Amino acid sequence: MTKLPARWNFIAMPFVLSIIMSSIVSFIATLKAMGFREGLVLKWLQAWGLSWAVAFPVLFLVLPLVRRIVALVVEPPGGG
Questions:
Q1: How far apart are CA 45 and CA 78, in angstroms?
Q2: Are 12 and 21 in contact (CB under 8 A)?
Q3: Dihedral-angle region of residue 54 (phi above 0 means left; psi in -120 to 50 means alpha; beta otherwise)
Q4: Is the dihedral of CA 65, 67, 70, 76 positive or negative?
Q5: In the prediction, which pLDDT does 80 show?
Q6: Alpha helices in the chain (DSSP H)
Q7: Which residue in 75, 63, 72 sits closest to 13, CA to CA?
Q8: What count of other Cβ atoms lies within 10 Å of the Cβ of residue 50?
Q9: Per-residue tens of pLDDT for the chain, all 80 residues
Q10: H/E segment holding residue 78
Q11: Is the dihedral of CA 17, 50, 24, 72 positive or negative?
Q12: Can you give the pTM of this predicted structure?
């Protein structure tokens, strides 16, 4: 499988993270609202589409801020 060059990491990371997080959160919210019943998967996919459309750009924008905040509270590698 051909991999993307390393310079694409800044887009690939929030892209994959937003897919995973928005799918889990939207599924839980849809399940809580509907319960296990017919049409759950379709409703979840609709909710996930909207959730991901919001999650990806937000994550892309806030990730640099999150990295700075984490750097304030976590020691860098090597204890330095």
A1: 43
A2: no
A3: alpha
A4: negative
A5: 60
A6: 9-34, 40-73
A7: 63
A8: 11
A9: 999 999 999 899 999 999 999 999 999 999 999 999 999 999 999 999 999 999 999 998 999 999 999 999 999 888 76
A10: none
A11: positive
A12: 0.81
CA distance 62 to 5: 23
Residue 11: both structure tokens together: 């887009």
Residue in this structure with the two tokens 């998967």, named with its chain if needed: 41
Query: CA-CA distance, 35 to 55, in Å (whole number)?
Result: 24
Compute the distance between CA of residue 78 and CA of residue 75 in angstroms, rounded to an integer: 8
Phi, psi (rounded to 5 degrees) for 13 = -60, -55
* Token representation of residue 25: 């959160």
Question: If you count them, how many residues does the chain have?
Answer: 80
How far is 6 from 55, CA to CA, in rounded Å?
Answer: 23
Question: CB burial class (10 A; 0-12, 13-18, 19+) of residue 14?
Answer: buried
